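Provenance

Sequences were taken from public entries as deposited. Structures were produced by running a predictor on each sequence independently, with no templates supplied. The record for D-lactate dehydrogenase (cytochrome) from candidate division TA06 bacterium is shown for reference.
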Amino acid sequence: MPNRWKEKVKKIVGKENFIDEKLELICYSRDMSVHQGMPNALVFCTTTDQISKLLRVANKSKVPVTVRGSGTSVTGAIIPIGGGLVLDLTRMDKMKKVRKEDGYVVVEPGVICQHLNSSLSPTHFFPPDPGSSNVCTIGGMVATNASGTRAVKYGTTRDWVMGLEVVLASGRVIRTGSYTPKTSSGYDLTRLFANSEGTLGIMTEITLKIVPVPEYIAFAKAAFAKLEDAGKTVADLFGSSIGLSACEILDTVSINVVNKAMKLGLPDVEGMLFIEVDGREPAVREEMSAIENICQSNNGIDIAWSDNPKQRQALWAARGGLVPSLSRFKKGYRLIPIAEDFGVPVSKVPEAIRGAQKISKKYDMLVATFGHAGDGNVHTTFILDVRNKDEWKKAEKMAGELVDLAMSLGGTLTAEHGLGIAKSAFADRELSSSLDVMREIKKGLDPNSILNPGKLSLDKKKVKILDHFAFSHVAGKKLKGFSEELDDEILVCVQCGFCRTGCPTFESTTLESKNARGRILLAQGLLEETIKPSMELADKMYSCSVCAGCTTTCPCSIKAPEIILACRRRLAQAGCMPQSITTMLENIEKEGNPFGSPRRERTDLFPKKYQKISAKPAEVLLFLGCLPSYVDMEIVPATFKIMQAADVDFTVLGEDEDCCGYVHYLAGSADFMKRVKSNMKKFKELRPRMIVTPCAGCYRALKTLYPKEFMVFHISEYVKGLLEEGKLKLANLVTKKVVYHDPCDLGRHMNVYDEPREVLRSIPGLVLTEFEKNRSSAVCCGGGGGLMAYDREMSLDISKRRLAEVLEEDMDVVVSACAACKDTLRKGLRAIPKEKRGTLTVADITELIAEAL
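Predicted structure for D-lactate dehydrogenase (cytochrome):
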């Protein structure tokens, strides 16, 4: 892309919304498919006017433009195989109009499906429910005509689109459809643009139908020894008057996968049905009874139904857990979507599944077959080792035979995911002469073919299913990896993007390189040696807070923090460590703490009797940590007060206490073990039975990274024990309303959730409340992983976002059990205008305990 066009685009969107850095672009070269394509630049737009102007420039210079939402496509539909611009609409996420009384909403394309339904709850909802609804955008859903489990009753996304605002390739803006329940005015352009996969125009505003939430929902499951009996049941259900809202089927491979991964104890059978009905309670109950009878008449076993929401959710967990389980079924293997989405007449579903199983057996390849039996949508998902070239060859042949199977049964190539790149090779098999009409429409609306080129077989180019192959540097190659375990973790990532919902640095930036998915893709580049260590790569890896928030939203449970730390070690070895991190390590080497404060100041906050005495052997070694000793003013005095009040036999290292080395560990420094050995020597001289620390980072390091020669307790755990033994009494009234913030190092990393809460509840007069996102779902404070040192601005932004959850509440104190969390949240609070933060303060748990003594 010539620089003159880049400059024009920058003027339209602003320099901050135009990115052409290679590593960032790599993060936008993939989706869940097996395809890859590099753009020349990434652009964020936030208005229709910007997009209109952008397309005028792109059209005049014939620069391809590929629209992207959350990147959850499984067909390569958003891969910029023609280069050019990736237009990311993530930031166009406004709910512009909500008219429940008229049954519609108007949204921008970047609105997340789940966010839309949350905003409509508890009265209304938008029915289409793809498996990625917690992260996929409405724009992406409309572009691919997504559906989900409820399609049997509620149809597909385009059935719920009332109107669109669309920018054509020329930059012209048009509106389609109406706000009325029905219209017969002219061609139905709304349905034309829906399901066009971004090849005809760019949607900038979408009007959707919404409906009231059903009064009553019930769910049934039934197992069948023979797959044909499950199919007969589906046919009988549809031949009845029962109004199903969902009807899912799992084959024997899928059942085995779920059982192994989720330990649900499903029966060893050839088929299972999961069925849902919604509506008025008396009618639903009557239909559930009829469903039981139909299942029993077709030799169904293990038949059960429930209207209990929790039980219903537990039953759906088996179906919901299937897809991620596929990537954990066999070590080194992962799910691969290729020909995974065909549709057949409902009566042909068992035949389709049997056919898929025969193909799987023929090639000795594992294929899980499942899907929405109620609408004939069959998913055939391959499970293979992406490093095995022979398996890829088999997969390519199998995909062709699955297409043959679908066509022979009067089916369709794709029931809900679209054609993209993956199925373009077979498009003419189904579309025949109508494909020529599609090409004429494309030429009329986009004569320069700038909009998402290379998709839907619109350009007449001969394509193969493994064209633009994303694993060309992996398949059949000998890799110089990190370790067998970490290599598997990197390659098992399916690029689904679910990590977006748990990543604080992504929420702050909306950049893929600042999200686990992007970082893992860059780690794969290191693994393949297509990316070399550099300061640019260091920026992506050291801007991670290593909070593990992504691990709670990742359906494959990928150990992203371990991958990030491995990359940091590789970068450190290559001399690519950021200066701010290097400075901290140099300070530790010189003064024993990352701040460079004189060693003699470590005891300034100690009670006078402990300031100058030498360390002596004792039952408990109190390891206070660097941040409490040098930065915070309250934690050290409070901790001493607690230990003295309980009459604990404890000692301290005083000025001889050094950094535990957790900073080295997080930085990827090879000197971490040197720090461990030095500290262990000091610990052994004091012969403590246990080590107690108020620092969550020190706690994690000492308990999990050091030799297991001493018991290690966080102060909250230790105080809980003192209270239970009656050695500590909290008598003073502390009349405060507090909200507890879970530290990542203490919570997600160490699973310490209950102890701090139990201690806080023991304080007289104190009222404990929770953040909406708490425990394993808690949002990082923004200070973890060295982020405050590396990128203070981002750290403070994350901190302010966390605090925003409670600013409108009548709260006195945000309390944590981590000195770094307290420090970061306190800085974030100071960055919020006084009129908004009010009298809210931030404290450590030790301060509230000490106040109660």
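Residues 782 and 795 are 4 Å apart (CA to CA).
The chain is about 40% helix and 15% strand.
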